[in-house]
Amino acid sequence: MLTAAAAVLALIPLVRSDFFGPMAVAMMGGIVVATGLTLGFLPALYAAWFRVRRRPADAAVAAR
């Protein structure tokens, strides 16, 4: 997440450019969307695909 944030922040100066501005905006949007999908959708897809179930709260405490 830190790398994605650094990449987005590094592209901010290019946004005002006539030549590189649209590319910078597209790259910033792609980085933000890809990071969001990686952090949110991929773990949910993994859990659904492999049928990962949450342990009951008392079992989680007993496992410690």
Strand and helix layout:
Blueprint: H1 2-11, H2 21-49, H3 57-62
Work out the helicity level. Answer: over 70%
Give me the count of strands: 0
Q: Pairing-aware structural class of the strands and helices?
A: mainly alpha
Major sheet description: none
Mean pLDDT over all positions: 91
Low confidence ranges: none
The helix count comes to 3
Give Rg in angstroms.
19 Å
Specify the overall morphology: elongated
Question: What assembly state would you assign to the polypeptide chains in this entry?
Answer: single chain
Q: What proportion of the residues form beta strands (DSSP E)?
A: under 5%
Q: What is the distance, rounded to the nearest whole angstrom, between the alpha carbons of the first and last residues?
A: 29 Å
Note the run of SSEs as H and E: HHH
What does this structure look like?
The protein is mainly α and 64 residues long. It has helices at residues 2-11, 21-49, 57-62. It has three helices and no strands. Helix 1 packs antiparallel against helix 2 (21-49). It is elongated, with a radius of gyration of 19 Å. The two termini are 29 Å apart.
Give a brief outline of the structure:
The chain is 70% helix and 0% strand. The protein has 64 residues and is mainly α.
